Automatic annotation (TrEMBL):
Subcellular location: Cell membrane
Name of the protein this chain belongs to: NhaC family Na+:H+ antiporter
Keyword tags: Antiport, Cell membrane, Membrane, Transmembrane, Transmembrane helix, Transport
Major localization class: membrane
GO annotations of cellular component type: plasma membrane
Family according to the record: Belongs to the NhaC Na(+)/H(+) (TC 2.A.35) antiporter family.
Topology term for the membrane: Multi-pass membrane protein
PANTHER family: MALATE-2H(+)/NA(+)-LACTATE ANTIPORTER, MALATE-2H(+)_NA(+)-LACTATE ANTIPORTER
Record-annotated Na+/H+ antiporter NhaC-like C-terminal domain positions: 171-471
Keyword Cell membrane: yes
Length: 484
């Protein structure tokens, strides 16, 4: 097919039709999967749809003169770009299994039920996750550890796990955005060439109001919603937990180790795996009865919990559902989803299909408000199409940087806008690497928690509103020869 490029012999640039064909295929196949399978579509049908989209995109670029070898090389780069995410996902799966075996998650749930009330539970979840994420600089680690425990507490308190997941993600992404330890925060500042602390200050102008609005909504929902489990019901479940596990602050040592390693800037996969292994070894000594019931060999129990997950058969449905999960195996569907989505997005980016659609949008954005709206639409659209927040960050920052300078708009405007539009909206897309991760570790489908990610919805909206109103829009001198 490489010879179909034309008389010049070399590849030709894509047309608008070329760029639209893979996009339309994505919309049709994803929508069809959701229509036929509902929320179960993420258990395989959406993954198949994404792989088919990869093949369609490959056919388009080969029609334009590129070889299959080039497509393969692009696919290799796509997979290598998510190597860290793959290791994090597998490590989180291992950690959840090991922390259930060791009693770390049951202890978090036990103490959490005693401290947290159903009436203000959602607001507390958002605040707790915000503080933790700001301390360690990782929304993924926060959701995969503290978030898992908070969703477990929600199950025991008989409050909505979907709203709880929304609160966890809202807090996790607030902390991630405002932490100098966050790799996406540092990357965004570097892409736009601004100081990271100046970038964080400008992000606060949208992040803090967005989180405050979400916090109030979580309070209102909690105060006006169903009362949750009765004291007798929670007392019964707490008694059951303490009968199964030895509940002690010692069980929280794996969490302390994880926070310490994260603050010391240890690579996330290494920190997570170290916390998982430590928990497994600790559980052999602190929870001998649980370990023995799970497997006749302590070493086998730890390995099995990390590989295929922990299983509990207490006879109490809520407790068994809370604790019977985890393991690297539980992340394989999510990895399949991420690999398909990122490969599709990388092919579209590297062979010019995305730029073919974005360039006309840049030229059509005449005013500042429309320019801000275009950046948001591009970043969010890339989260949907490319399935990866890094593409949604890097490409708009690269494409719009010169246009912001030409119009006399300070680069801090673009850094804030790309973070609000690219990073924050990534967990709202089920097949995006972030959305897939959050759905997998929290055990709540992305489409179920999406309406309650108030911070993730309000933050980009405020950025766009600022663009139209001129509020907190900083200007610089226009370079010679350019006009606004």
């Amino acid at each position: 097919m490489a010879g179909m490029a034309g008389e010049g012999g070399g590849p030709r640039p894509p047309s608008v039709v070329d760029a639209l064909i893979p996009m339309i295929t994505l919309v049709v196949l994803i929508a069809g999967s959701l229509a036929v399978f509902g929320l179960d579509a993420l258990d395989g049908p959406v993954q198949v749809a994404l792989i088919l989209c990869v093949m369609v995109a490959a056919l388009v670029v080969m029609k334009n003169g590129h070889s299959w070898a080039e497509v393969e090389e692009s696919s290799k780069r796509a997979v290598s770009s998510v190597t860290s995410a793959i290791f994090i996902l597998l490590s989180v799966g291992a950690l959840i299994g090991a922390w259930n075996l060791s009693g770390t998650i049951p202890t978090l749930v036990y103490y959490g039920i005693q401290v947290l009330s159903a009436s203000w539970y959602y607001a507390a979840c958002a605040l707790i996750c915000g503080i933790i994420a700001m301390s360690i600089g990782s929304s993924w680690t926060t959701a995969g550890t503290i978030g898992v425990g908070l969703v477990g507490i929600a199950t025991m308190l008989d409050v909505s796990t979907a709203i709880t997941a929304g609160a966890v993600i809202s807090g996790a992404y607030l902390g991630d955005k405002l932490s100098p330890l966050s790799e996406t925060t540092v990357l965004t500042a570097q892409l736009v060439k601004v100081d990271v602390y100046e970038h964080i200050k400008r992000q606060a102008w949208t992040s803090i109001p967005a989180f405050a609005l979400g916090f109030v909504l979580f309070l209102v929902i909690g105060l006006t919603g169903p009362p949750g489990a009765t004291e007798a019901e929670t007392t019964s479940e707490l008694t059951a937990l303490s009968d199964i596990y030895w509940i002690t602050p010692i069980n929280l040592l794996p969490l302390v180790l994880l926070v310490y390693l994260s603050v010391r800037k240890a690579p996330a996969p290494l920190a997570l795996m170290a916390a998982a292994l430590f928990a497994g070894v600790l559980g052999c000594f602190t929870q001998p009865q649980v370990t023995q019931a799970f497997s006749d060999n302590p070493i086998k129990a730890v390995w099995q919990a990390m590989a295929t997950g922990f299983q509990m058969s207490s006879g109490i449905q809520d407790i068994d559902q809370l604790l019977s999960r985890g393991g690297m195996v539980s992340m394989l569907l999510t990895l399949w989803l991420i690999i398909g989505a990122v490969t599709f997005g990388t092919i579209l980016e590297e062979f010019g299909l995305i730029n073919r659609l974005i360039d006309p949008l840049v030229k059509a954005a005449k005013g500042t408000g429309r320019l801000f709206l275009t950046v948001f639409a591009s970043a969010f659209g890339l989260n949907v199409i490319a399935g990866d927040q890094y593409i949604a960050l890097v490409l708009p920052a690269r494409v719009f940087r010169a246009e912001f300078a030409r119009r006399g708009l300070a680069p801090t405007n673009l850094s804030r806008l790309t973070a609000d539009s690219g990073t924050v909206t990534s967990p709202l897309v089920p097949w995006n690497s972030c959305g897939a991760f959050m759905g997998a570790v929290l055990g709540v489908p992305t489409l179920a928690y999406l309406p309650f990610c108030f911070f993730n919805i309000f933050s980009p909206l405020l950025s766009v509103v600022y663009g139209f109103t001129g509020f907190k829009i900083e200007r610089v001198e226009v370079p010679d020869g350019d006009t606004d």
